[in-house]
Amino acid sequence: MKSLLNRYLKVIDWYIIKKYLGTFGFTLAIFSVVMVVFDISEHLDNFLKKQTTLHDIAFQYYAGFIPFYLIIYRLLLTSWRLSCSRPKWLTKRR
Fold first, then answer.
1. How far apart are CA 62 and CA 55, in angstroms?
2. Nearest to 21 by CA among 63, 83, 74, 80
3. How far apart are CA 42 and CA 57, in angstroms?
4. What pTM does this model have?
């Protein structure tokens, strides 16, 4: 498999893939941090009223919350990127 990839992907292709995936991962990480900060600020009074432990908040609430929203953001980011890179012949009106 690796020889097949090395045959078709040149050094510049690997460079572009790494740069894109690095930027994509960084963007998802920033979105997740901002999302968690806003969610904590909205639900802090509920957490304090129920005297929920930090372990319960992190591993029960956010363990399902973060992956759900990361999937939604991933779809939004990739679909936006695809819509920006459409060829001109595809977007031309007749």
1. 10
2. 74
3. 14
4. 0.62
